[in-house]
């Protein structure tokens, strides 16, 4: 049985590798920049045959060609074939009306080879072209679209050292910058039906077109490799507009609608990349943060669920059928999900979040009679949530809702968590059905607003992102509608997430097979908008269901390498003879069941700790800055100004404050720019820094006793610690003098840390070092003080110290031993054993193996 399982494993690995190769086979080639860019940016491909062709023999050139849709100009050279006798054979495309557009030229002679191809063949498929030079019969033939065209008496000159130039070129007197917008792949040179040179054009990047037979590599200028377009998201458009913005998508016209307070902005995502605005004839509207828009049934709708408001935009009159005025400044349904069902001509609203409550309600708005209705659902329980992804079948009679964040009770304060369930909702019978749970190995994640459902393939696409970070990223996944499996596809998109101030959505065009991602971030009364595109089918970067980094997956052979390693690992595993569920070893001792948390024992331990009398010092709420737990800043009047900080100002404040308090010198402008404005030019970064420093100074003036300066060449914050309480400063005063630790200082440290972990709800990469240092220093202080005591001195206090250490490190061996011995000293032997078993369980979950010492060894 073990060998059978191993064979299945090997076959699966091979099929996985094969799947990668099949994906790559669908998505390669070279795309040419044409008249949509200036001459210097247009694409050229130069292929040299060297001495591989014998001049006396006939030869042929074949390639696959496709045109790029929705461009304004289709004119220019597809290729020029030139030999050392200075004879050129050119294939051009002429977009003049009432003519044959494809034309073949020999020298300066326009041949009789002229033809058209159907638009469907030309724009939606790859068409194979074959040009045959017959020197013996002085004839040239061209085969394309199933038809053969012949030019007799072509006046061909035999030669050698042929150059094959596609698109623009700068070769001698043949240079040209005119070319149609096209895609090219699989260029082959044959002589006597024998393959001489082959350029597949399947590169990801670079300016080299690899030749696979004789290493006659070609050179590309300004390439756009199609393989990269199936893996790397392209930033199509970036803009900032004042006020609130929501987005919608019309799949038929591939138009992205951006609903703003004074206009509807329309971006054509069909390739033309045009953008235009439709101003409101009625003037400025008052939109609500967190509201949403939807395009369906050839109309654009604005949705504000709180007021049961659905407004329709009239493109002719350029106004909404309802004025968007006197609306609240917030919504109780942030990040809700919505869809339109043609079955009952109704707009459906599911879930959402607001005022510390997650929603599980389903409501609908009938666009025919303009009536709202709460839907009483049946079937499996739908956990209240937001940040879920929703997609529908083609006729929208069934919706799939995946993941999100919420709680069983709907209350934010009661055990909120990430959700990974796939729920199906059917319009006809108003029923929810849970299909499965995703395997959420690795970092927790939620979903952008929409899923793309492929009903035929029974798959979905969705954008996921870790919601606990501000500097987050969106990652496309492809999953099954029938089981929990999914794959990471395409690379990541940078995404700044600030709860209801941020929004991300995923759109899909079946016409072009392209995906579009839209991100919105509201900041300082402006909304920053980014639009990305990815060609389909997207390439698989890894076959595991996790959010591990995809940075190392640069080529498919790495996937093969990983598969081989997995196979080797499987062989080694089997050679170890480790028993599996299929091969029980009768002579072995039965495996003890895993320990279950003993709630009675836990309660008794808490009672022991509660019996200790600790002095309670109230935290000041005037002139105070708290960095442990949630960030809070209080003025001398007791006013909290934390919410006045935008995400950018908050990060700027923390960088300067932490660098100032911990090291005293502050932080350089270069370091600030590297962290906050790494994607800006030097001038732009400097301007951004100056503007935001001024804003930060204005906010800090409200605190008093707080001076921001650059007197030493570093941005530094000087604080009067006698006037302002800063918990991080007090923490550093304690941990930096471990030799002077006593019980009072340990209690002061506990008073600081009981508010929570250091900046617990804030995630920045640069902050990780600070957080790690804080945890390590606190643990070291607790252990150093504990080691200075005897168990008999104060066993109850030592139990509390051990618990405090577990708060920062749940598998700290020293804390476990300390707690077990202290409990045993108090005569709580069963509690000591339970503590050890709980520790061992946690240890095994993290490290995959039992703790090396048994209970008796721990107690010695």
Write the layout of secondary structure elements.
Layout: H1 2-26, E1 30-32, E2 44-48, E3 59-67, E4 76-82, E5 88-93, E6 102-106, E7 109-115, H2 119-124, E8 127-134, E9 139-144, E10 147-152, E11 163-167, E12 182-191, E13 194-199, E14 208-209, E15 218-221, E16 223-225, H3 226-229, E17 234-242, E18 246-250, E19 255-259, E20 263-268, E21 275-279, E22 292-296, E23 299-304, E24 309-314, E25 319-320, E26 337-341, E27 346-350, E28 353-354, E29 357-358, E30 362-366, E31 371-374, E32 378-379, E33 385-386, E34 389-392, E35 398-406, E36 417-426, E37 431-437, E38 446-454, E39 459-465, E40 471-480, E41 486-489, E42 493-496, E43 502-509, E44 514-523, E45 526-535, E46 540-542, H4 556-575, H5 599-610, E47 624-626, E48 632-634, H6 647-663, H7 669-676, H8 682-700, E49 706-709, E50 716-719, E51 725-726, H9 727-735, H10 743-753, H11 768-787, H12 795-808, H13 813-825, H14 829-847, H15 855-859
Parallel strand pairs: 32-37, 47-51
Antiparallel strand pairs: 1-12, 1-16, 2-11, 2-15, 3-8, 3-12, 4-5, 4-11, 5-6, 6-7, 8-9, 9-10, 12-13, 14-15, 17-45, 18-19, 19-20, 20-21, 22-23, 23-24, 24-25, 26-27, 27-30, 28-29, 30-31, 33-35, 34-35, 35-36, 36-37, 38-39, 39-40, 40-41, 40-42, 41-46, 43-44, 44-45, 47-48, 49-50
Descriptive account of the structure:
- With 860 residues, the chain is of the alpha+beta class.
- It has four domains: 28-228, Jelly Rolls (Sandwich), CATH 2.60.120; 234-538, Kelch-type beta propeller (Neuraminidase); 598-627 and 727-860, Serine Threonine Protein Phosphatase 5, Tetratricopeptide repeat, CATH 1.25.40; 645-723, Orthogonal Bundle (Arc Repressor Mutant, subunit A).
- It contains 15 helices and 51 strands.
- The strands form eleven sheets. Strands 1, 3, 8, 9, 10, 12, 13 and 16 form an eight-stranded antiparallel β-sheet that branches. It has an eight-stranded antiparallel β-sheet with strand order 7-6-5-4-11-2-15-14, with no helix packed on it. Strands 32, 33, 34, 35, 36 and 37 form a six-stranded mixed β-sheet that branches.
- Strand 5 and strand 6 form a beta hairpin.
- The chain is globular.
- Residues 1-26, 542-601 and 610-616 have low confidence and may be disordered.
